[in-house]
Write a structure and sequence with these properties.
Blueprint lengths: L4 E8 L2 E8 L3 E6 L9 H9 L2 E5 L9 H9 L4 E3 L7 H10 L3 E6 L10 H9 L4 E4 L4 H9 L10 E3 L8 H12 L4 E5 L1 E2 L4 E2 L2 H15 L9 E6 L7 E6 H4 L9 E5 L5 H10 L6
Parallel strand pairs: 3-6, 3-7, 4-5, 4-6, 8-9
Antiparallel strand pairs: 1-2, 9-14, 10-11, 12-13, 12-14
């Protein structure tokens, strides 16, 4: 491939500096939102201009048919990637490809809300590859709109992982510390797409209850208010606020799920939860 370069001069105290940018070399991270249809106009244009389009298929779950719909919209083939394709040797291959072509990586939600892809961005920058970032909606950015909870009142978030990975003390302590300050806690629930294992809200609550029985710090109890969100922003999304004892047995349907433990609630937040999260009297 013949490289097309664009040059421009940068004025400095040491004189003019000529900078050349390889227009055929680029790695673009493009968020596609929670449904796969959250692609912005800017993101669509970047994808259409790419020589190769990949999609992270292991950090989140999208509605059925999202990949085909995106491919039709963009007008190009999209190759789904597994974790191994974006780590270790797989990462090196992506970097080498981006050194001689325009590569786009589609990511569910926003590409950098989680830390999964920051290593690829860092390595691309070290290799002198121009990196572009096209954001989109993530679960963090839609929570306030879905529930009415104030964005300013969220504290540290955490992930409840499957018990075979560890004791989940970080999640328990995040809830404890946030509650002590009147802050809300967003709890991500473990997701392993490649082996079809996804934690449900019910499983996450059971883990918190087991932690409470072991630690006994009074952080989790059956009468506390919790909010479960399933398939956020999908057509069949569910948002339900109630006592933990009721949410424990509530049927939220298939994942992805997240769990929110509210802190102190303003009267507007309470009204919003009654209207948008079917909250019973609390």
């Amino acid at each position: 491939m013949t490289s097309l370069k664009s040059s421009f001069n940068l004025n400095s105290k040491q004189g003019d500096i000529k900078i050349e940018v390889d227009l055929f070399m680029c790695l673009t991270f493009i968020g596609i939102g929670l449904t796969g249809m959250g692609l912005t106009i800017e993101g669509l244009k970047e994808a259409q201009n790419a020589d190769f389009i990949f999609m992270d298929s292991y950090t989140s779950i999208l509605p059925n048919g999202a990949l085909n719909t995106l491919s039709s919209l963009i007008g190009k083939n999209i190759q789904p990637l597994k974790r191994a394709d974006l780590e270790g040797r797989g990462l090196v291959k992506i970097i080498e490809l981006a050194k001689r072509s325009k590569v786009a990586l589609l990511v569910a939600g926003d590409p950098f809300i989680a830390t999964t892809h920051i290593s690829l961005k860092i390595e691309a920058a070290k290799a002198g590859i121009p990196v572009k970032y096209i954001p989109s909606a993530s679960i963090q950015t839609v929570i306030s709109g879905l529930t009415g909870l104030s964005n300013y009142k969220f504290g540290k978030s955490a992930t409840i992982v499957f018990p075979d990975k560890g004791p989940n003390n970080a999640a328990y302590e995040a809830v404890r510390d946030n509650k002590s300050r009147g802050l809300h806690t967003l709890l991500y629930l473990d997701l392993e797409v490649e082996i079809s294992r996804a934690m449900t809200i019910n499983e996450g609550i059971k883990i918190l209850l087991e932690l409470e029985s072991k630690r006994g710090e009074g952080v989790i109890n059956s009468d506390m208010l919790v909010i479960g969100i399933a398939r956020a922003c999908w057509k069949d999304s569910i948002i339900k606020a109630s006592k933990l004892s009721k949410i424990l047995h509530y049927d939220f349907g298939p994942p992805p799920h997240v769990l929110i433990i509210p802190g102190s609630l303003h009267f507007i937040e309470l009204e919003a939860l009654r209207l948008f999260a079917d909250m019973e009297d609390y």
